[in-house]
Amino acid sequence: xxxxSLLLCCFAFQAQADTGAWIDYxxxxxxxxxxxxxxxxxxxxxxxxxxxxxxxxxxxSQMAYGSSDAFGPACGKCFNVTxxxxxxxxxxxxxTVVKSLVIKVTDLCPLSExxxxxxxxxxxxxxxxxxxxxxxxPSAAIPDDFFPSNASYYGYTDFGVWNVTYQTVxxxxxxxxxxxxxxxxxxxxxxxPTGSSNDTCPSYSDDNRLPPDTMTNVARMFAVPYTLVxxxxxxxxxxxx
Length: 241
Ligand SMILES: *[C@@H]1O[C@H](CO)[C@@H](O)[C@H](O)[C@H]1NC(C)=O
Ligand SMILES: *[C@@H]1O[C@H](CO)[C@@H](O)[C@H](O)[C@H]1NC(C)=O
Ligand SMILES: *[C@@H]1O[C@H](CO)[C@@H](O)[C@H](O)[C@H]1NC(C)=O
Ligand SMILES: *[C@@H]1O[C@H](CO)[C@@H](O)[C@H](O)[C@H]1NC(C)=O
Known about the structure:
By secondary structure, the chain is of the alpha/beta class. It is built from six helices and six strands; from the N terminus they run H-E-E-H-E-E-E-H-E-H-H-H. The chain has helices at residues 2-17, 62-65, 151-154, 171-174, 204-209, 217-237, and strands at residues 28-36, 57-61, 78-86, 100-109, 132-136, 162-169.
């Protein structure tokens, strides 16, 4: 029994230790969408001009965003997000209208253990998706009734999380803020990143800013599981699992 739980424990932590790779997501696909509040004029992780908050923007889940701290390759990208259905309500809600919105990624949604931004290359979030868009909402740029609802049936209007499809779109022709004269190309907020190195943010925090990781691969292989195994043994002995 102890052996089995140790084994499970190690697999669990090994999976966690393997979250290092960014998600190489397709240009078009499915995701979840949540929403969060961002103060008017706020300069978020990508360093976009504060005026970006006047237009539809979103944070992207860390492992798709491509950086654990500051700028990532997703900065400035535009996606057309279409609401499919909700599933936090019972029964799931399928709207009778199709709602879409073109957002620009200006922020990072940090990787968490179990939340909506917990998706990694190998692990889906609780909505069964690898990617989450965290929409800046409410927003002056988005109608208050953007999210469909059925208040008389559910007793509330905010489902919190939606199952969505997304398409990568050209910011210059599709994003509402593109016509604004504000300088989008500030800090690491390309006006229209295409994935090419001359117009896309590098994974700044991991390549250029975080302290260098001097541990060798062999050291890492032994160091992480060893500490965690110790913790697992202690946790087991003290009846924590
Ligand atoms: C709300 O849900 C109920 C039960 O499914 C349905 O009969 C009704 O037509 C819905 N109303 C709207 C506005 O979607
Ligand atoms: C999200 O939508 C897709 C496509 O319609 C569907 O296959 C999937 O089951 C949905 N997921 C949830 C959690 O509702
Ligand atoms: C976004 O997707 C919706 C639904 O597929 C579509 O009707 C709309 O034209 C798209 N908008 C853009 C800018 O691609
Ligand atoms: C980036 O490089 C591509 C291909 O060389 C070129 O077409 C594009 O204009 C360049 N973009 C910028 C912003 O320099």
